[in-house]
Amino acid sequence: MSQLEKAVHWINGQWVDSGETKESHDPATGEVIGTYVEAGPDEMQQAIDAAQKAFKETDWKDNRRLRNIVLTKLAEAFEQAMPELVEITGLENGKVKSHAEIEFEVVPHTFRVNAGLTLTDFGRAMQVIPGSLDMVLREPVGVAGIIAPWNSPVALGVRSLAPALAAGTTVVMHLPRQTAHINHLIAKTIASVKEIPEGVINVVIGGAKTGQLLVDSPAVPTISFTGSSQTGRSISASGADNLKRFGLELGGKTPMVVFDDADIDAYVATQVPALSVFAGQFCMTASRVLVHESVADEVRTKLVDALSQIKVGPAADPSSEMGPLIDRPNVERVNGMVEDAINDGAKVLLRGGPFTEGPLSEGAFYAPTLLEVDSCDFDIVQQEVFGPVLVMQTFTSEEEAIEMANATEYGLAAAIWSRDIDRPLRVAREIEAGTVWINDWAALFDQFEEGGYKASGVGRMRGLAVLDDFLECKHISLGPGRVGDHG
């Protein structure tokens, strides 16, 4: 096949072809599909300088109408780019078409909701004592650093980019080298909106070292990061020297809690995509299922049947229902976690695992796996797998189900399955998670906050609260007095 256009950085309104040149690979075959440049300190500093200059020298931070126009046009530009994004994501990220479409269909909505916020984010004013007038203005903090992950760089990058622009910050987007050509198309789509002043949005392709440069820069007061809890802890510690502000959406271990009055067929039909979307490489992957013991046999049987029928294959095959992991080292990592669990006593209901023969053995494919354990102490319960591995446990009461659901350090999301009117809300109030679905999974809307309890994050993405990551509050107090006070 012919190679893709070389992926380069977008800095200060210009294409920047500098840094170390490396190869991109198709995770389905391991074949080279193109080359890209990985940023170093020079490129990152150029991007920070450009964003800082744009913040100081243009009217971007003060011109709400311009920001509204830009966000609206970005929504239109990404809608037009969607077919090409779907194609290149299948090639470089391995997502089958239906999964790529799930990721991209939300992007225009994200831009449009935030376009509305540019015109509706009000401050406050009041008279506290006679003759006084006090007000609070919400002002952009300056340059925002955005660090998006390789599993969904478009949707998760835009999830931070849109509110950062709405708030009036200028931006340095650090996008991962594993998706260099997707990143390049993101930058091309942004560059097509001519109303964006130079330097307002800068897109840099890099790895952990360049991301750390963004975190360490005193010129970047806020970081919006999506990634692992381990990395979130690390960058939070290093950012403390500059008292840096962080918005963090981190790891997850989403439990599906299935009660004895649940619609089991509806649950199983939802569990299939909840495990297989993005091949389980999703912070909200439903990787745990907690089942009332009275319906456990039915759930076991139906899960094994449904998960074993998922057709694993390359995105190039229209019949594929789940693509590969991002690379072969991750196949080895996931399989190692499964093997360790089995050695520790986990019961195998469906082994799945790597493909050792045939054409799929050349890629990073991993068939869905279902294990059952009798304790929350297993590492496979406590640790984020980031692959299509589901772990089942049984419970006997609401209290036990809640205790089990809360038994990990994560608290990003959960789902409750029950036909009862009162039980789902009663249980949802006790689950330590930022999002709880009732008889559903992955219902996410830009109008409502998304984020984690405990080690799953700090702050919120989406909703109204997301703007707080990019704004400062300034109190201005006046004492004009009252008519007649000054003679």
TrEMBL record:
Which SUPFAM superfamilies does this entry report, sorted A to Z?
ALDH-like
Q: Which residues cross the membrane?
A: none
Q: Which UniProt keywords apply?
A: Oxidoreductase
Q: What's a single GO MF annotation on this record? A: oxidoreductase activity, acting on the aldehyde or oxo group of donors, NAD or NADP as acceptor
Alphabetized InterPro entries for the sequence: Ald_DH/histidinol_DH, Ald_DH_C, Ald_DH_N, Aldehyde_DH_dom
Q: Which Pfam families match?
A: Aldedh (PF00171)
Keyword Nucleotide-binding appears in the UniProt entry = no
Query: The Aldehyde dehydrogenase domain covers which part of the protein?
Result: 15-476
Q: Does the keyword Coiled coil apply?
A: no
The family line of this record is: Belongs to the aldehyde dehydrogenase family.
Write the protein's name: Aldehyde dehydrogenase
The organism named in the record is Rothia aerolata
